[in-house]
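Because discrete structure vocabularies remain unfamiliar, we turn briefly to a single example record, giving the amino acid sequence and backbone structure tokens:
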Amino acid sequence: MSDPRLQRRLGTSAAVFIGLGSMMGAGVFAVFQPAAQVAGAGLLVGLVIAAVVACCNAMSSAQLAAQLPSAGGTYLYGRELIGPWWGFAAGWSFVVGKTASAAAMAVAFAAYAAPAEWSRPVAALAVAVVVVTNCLGVTRTATATRVIVVAVLLVLAVVVGSGVVGPEAGSTGVASLGFDASPLAVLQSAGLLFFAFAGYARIATLGEEVRDPAKTIPRAIGVAFAVAVVVYAAVAVVSLLTLGADGLASSARPLAAVVETNGWPWAATLVRLGAAAACLGALLAVFAGIGRTAFAMARTGDLPRALDAVHPRFATPYRAELLVGAVVIVLVLLVDLRSAIGFSSFGVLLYYVVANVAAYRQTREHRRYPRAVSVFGAVGCVVLMFTLPPTSVLVGSVVVLVGFAGRAVALRQAQ
């Protein structure tokens, strides 16, 4: 078997921006509305829970990536430290869940960037452009993501600024932060909000393309995660203070509504443009992660070995990128994927269960954090998985079982 290798071209700054590009995407503009629908102002507690679980996952991922800095992320960690079936569970959950997530991000981008009648063709075009960008090289992906992340952070600063110094700032008042949500509702909101935190894993999936990965990956994951937590907390509090829980739950474009309510109507267009840019940036980073995980699975035979190919000039897993791009284009043209957040969260949470179990299995020489971090992360992921909406749990479970059955058949035929 050939053993093509990717090239180490990314430094800490580029890795941080790829992680931020994945987190500062569709999530921050879209996820607070469904979280408010299930928990009201209790989403603030859900945000804390999601952040704590995600922090444990980030620490486990950083520890694993320092030991095993190759493409594939938790797929590789599961195979090496637990067993092939665990690795397959992680890789399959990630590829399928993030493929649906990528399609949803493309549809969200088109909703902000084009008239309704053109949304599907524009979404498909956006996917095609992103795939070509990724195939041209990871440094181009990092450069494009850096520009988009800076633009999105500036837009979010305007949103938060309107809630602090705008003429109608805090119009709904501190009373809107009170809540009477049930524990189950809070946990459901945490599971949905976890969708917005999952991007730091993209740094680990690029482990074969990062310079000095033992130092760069943990540092980049920590910085990207810390920035995301601060930004999400600020946006959530300002949104609730401005719109109230009911207003946040009923608004299709909540952050645009925030600036309008706070007396900055001129900023609504800016926010819509920022949302479109954020979705595009997240799409760039998500495709980079999906393609490299599929490439790693093909390298070991868990996906067709034809995908185990690196472009001779651009050093990218171009076949995997092109295949995933084709699947996503079909999805955005034929399927309504606006409710994909729950399904994506199920797949990503299962992915991190494997990551935490793998980190627990690391030997003392490779462990940077106490084993309790991995235990808490794994338990937290399982709890959030099974408090998601029932449809998300059912569909996610069926898809995982189909993948396992397919692998079992392939192994039997290979004997």
